[in-house]
Write a structure and sequence with these properties.
Largest sheet: 6 strands, mixed
Structural class: mainly beta
Distance between the termini: 53 Å
Strand content: 35-45%
Number of helices: 2
């Protein structure tokens, strides 16, 4: 892992001791080094302009991340203490800029395509704006199906992918209803595609009743009824 950390602190503290300002930078760097950002390939923390208080250089500093988003906007609280007494507290807004090796489409890929080794390439991209996106490792994406068209060079992330179903809609299965130690089984039919372990709607063939059942094998579903 290559970790590049650059702290850019634009300060308005002309009258404050320079040493205190440097200590704040070092404290922020320590928080980033030991926080969740340490796992990323490359990080740049850009802190918005702030007013540094005119305090003694010997005061203690405590830095707490109020948010811990891996990418994008974050807030850090810096507390200045002396002999256990809080002198001043600041909230610093910062943008965590990130660069990572990410999977991209090696060619135009149609919707419904199942990803193979030749479909993906790995590129170094800035991922700052992907604060709410879960990026898969290239090997994690293999064998998954695309739920949309992806143009060549476009980033591939989990929202574009879904696992191939283990059972298909319309497939007949045995539905077992379990309640208070009593188990009753009946023939049923899946109302939608499903994967093992998931809850899926099933319809009993004889009564037509529709139930939510957990898929426990390729031909069995279980409905647990609590009294």
């Amino acid at each position: 892992m290559r970790l590049l950390l650059l702290l850019i602190l634009t300060s308005l503290c002309h009258a404050a001791p320079e040493a205190l300002h440097v200590r704040v930078q070092q404290a922020l760097q320590q928080v980033v080094d030991n926080g969740p950002w340490a796992a990323l390939d490359s990080v740049q923390l850009e802190v918005r302009a702030w007013s540094c208080p005119a305090l003694s250089e010997s005061c203690l500093l405590e830095v707490e991340p109020l948010t811990q988003r891996l990418r994008g906007g974050n807030v850090f609280r810096v507390s200045f203490l002396e002999q256990g007494r809080l002198l001043r507290s600041l909230s610093l807004s910062a943008t965590v800029r990130t660069w990572e090796q990410v999977p991209v489409a090696a060619r135009d890929l149609p919707r419904g395509h199942i990803l193979g080794p030749d479909d993906l390439a790995v590129e170094w991209r800035e991922t700052t704006q992907l604060s709410q996106v879960d990026l898969p490792a290239p090997t994690e994406a293999l064998g998954l199906q695309l739920n949309r068209y992806i143009a060549q060079g476009r980033l591939v992330h989990h929202r574009m992918l879904h696992k191939l179903p283990d059972l298909e809609r319309g497939q007949r299965i045995t539905v077992t209803v379990s309640t208070e130690g009593v188990r009753v089984s009946a023939a049923g039919k899946l109302e939608q595609d499903a994967c093992l372990g998931e809850l899926a709607p099933v319809r009993l063939l004889e009564s037509g009743r529709r139930l939510q059942a957990r898929i426990i094998s390729l031909d069995q579903a279980l409905v647990e009824v609590t009294p």
